[in-house]
Design a protein that fits this description.
The protein is 45% helix and 10% strand. It is built from 14 helices and 6 strands.
Length: 364
Amino acid sequence: MYFKRSTNIDILGQSSEQELSPDRQFCAAIVDFPTPKRKRIEEHYTPKAKKLKLQLQRSSRNLQNKRAQISKLKQRLRFSKKYSSIENILNLQKFASNSSKVLTKMQFKTKRRAWTTDEKKFALTFYYKSPAAYRFLRSQKVILPGITTIKRWIGTSKFKPEIISGARAAVTENDLRIWFADLEAYLNEENATDILNNPDRIFNADETEVQLCPKTGKVLGPKQCKNFYDIAVGQEKESTTVLANFSASGKITPPCIVYPYKRIPRDVVASIPNYFTIIGRSDTGWMVGPTFFEYVANSFHKWLLENNIELRILFLLDGHTSHINPELADFCREKRILIYCLLASATHIIQPCDVEVFRSLKCS
């Protein structure tokens, strides 16, 4: 169908009076054709196409739901990440000993993580006790440091071991926790838990042996000489017992020296400083019950009153027989001094005098 072009409009460069060719008339008709209104054309699908379209819509909705669930799971994972670590899971479990916990933790070790101090101690102890058992467990795919690693640790370690008895070596962490729990229960029974809040009211006393002829250090000498000697002033292995007493806040009470004399010579008494208020004596030079009682009654209790220390106080002692006797117990009960013995065979771990003071003195 062709439309008649208006004569007053020039199309495609032709004058309005000339006749147009069929092609130009077709182009002119397209230009003059009115724009139709857009109407929504109804889509006609086959039954198979409709079924596929429904499946696509359903899959799209499922995909959106899955994405929402994944987002929620990621949020929960970030929130609970700190509660899902191996360390926290192991802390929630109950182990028979600390060694069993360390061995279990070692089974989750990755290549990037270095061995911890506890793991090194466990591996070295285990290898020292039984190298054959250590190799057997490694052959059974139990994760343990390699034999070469153990030998490298042994070769590069520079430790000075402390010689202890079998009873001291058998003390476990659980034994220490039980002792601290018993101490807290004892203070609750005595209504004296406020002592733990004041370090000035917690004391620990113990004796140590001081060598009168200590070992000398290194000396310079010619290479030709193989042996060097230092002449001792007195007996080579002579020693003296010193009783020291400290508070948890760091205050020092007057110490006590025990001499192996029946009668202490005057020159020895004159050479002792004034802050040594008590000079003890015994047949062997070691601490005995009467000497310790004299120290507590005439020196320690007097010092507490002079320094305005609030009574009652907690007095921690080891279970030596010189520290435990009926006269001392009655005196301390009367003077509001609570005596509590440290865990047997564990003073090398929890006694402040041994761990901090005497060790620093003897290693210097």
